[in-house]
Amino acid sequence: VFTRQRFPMDWASAQNNLGSIYQTLGQRARDAAKLEQSASAFRATRQVYVRRKFPRDWAMSHYNLGNTLQLLGGVTDKPEHYGEAIAAYRDALREYNRETNPRQWALAQAGLGSTLHWLSMSNADSRTLLESIAARRAALEVLTVDAAPVDWANAQNGIGMSLLNLGNLERTGKYLGDAEAAFTATLKVFSREGLPMQWAFAQNNLGDVSWNRASYGGGKAEYQKAIEFFENAKQGFTEAGYTIPIPLTDQKIDLVKKQMAKK
């Protein structure tokens, strides 16, 4: 039996493995209790992985904890978990740096950016969104389309979402061009044939850009583009066998058509 007193490194490794298992189970089932168990296990590893002796293991435990707490925030809809996740990622980044741990540094930046975005949904704070965008752009310095295509595309998508939300908060269309560029970039990876669900979400997001642009005086052409993107999204969701977003997409199409008819 691996006890912390007799076999501290083995005990910490077992706790880390437990944390990963509970994280996977909690994510799949959206089970808050499993995610709480995951967080407890990752916290336990820090009884052994102290920064002075085991800096990389210490950073890893904080990164893993950040991932679990971000998931827990989404499952429970409690913003305090996002705050704890942000602190965990920032602790990891105290040890991870771009020069010596480039991939882990980039993944921690991406996790930080994602969590800041979700926190902004609760606090409606422009500064939080700007921090999210900055963290994800930092991640893209390492997570290139050639080296890590899916991570790169996810970061681009996150940047686009934060830019859209930032424009909505500030009631301006000045971020739409950059948001459109970010969503369009994801299509280099999210192809309709290979990843139809991700392609569909990209089409949906591009539809939101055109719809917003139309609202800021873009004219009927932008409304029509929005409808086309939303129709593409519906087709992609159908092809992916993921029908949950389709009713909402239909509602968007109806609203766009009504707004266009008034112009």
Strand content: under 5%
Number of helices: 11
Largest sheet: none
Q: Per the principal axes of the C-alpha atoms, what is the gross shape?
A: elongated
Kindly name the structural category: mainly alpha
Topology as a string of helices (H) and strands (E):
HHHHHHHHHHH
Evaluate the radius of gyration. 21 Å
How much helicity do the residues have?
A: over 70%
Give a quick precis of the structure:
The protein is mostly helical and 263 residues long. Helix content is 78%, strand content 0%.
Explain what this protein looks like in three dimensions.
The protein has about 260 residues and is an all-alpha fold. It is built from eleven helices and no strands. The relative contact order is 0.06. The model has no long low-confidence stretch (mean pLDDT about 95).
Characteristics of this structure?
263 residues, mainly alpha, 78% helix, 11 helices, 0% strand
Blueprint (SSEs and pairs):
Layout: H1 8-29, H2 32-45, H3 55-76, H4 79-95, H5 102-123, H6 126-139, H7 149-170, H8 176-186, H9 196-218, H10 220-240, H11 246-261
Helix pairs in contact: 1-2, 1-3, 2-3, 3-4, 3-5, 4-5, 5-6, 5-7, 6-7, 7-8, 7-9, 8-9, 9-10, 10-11
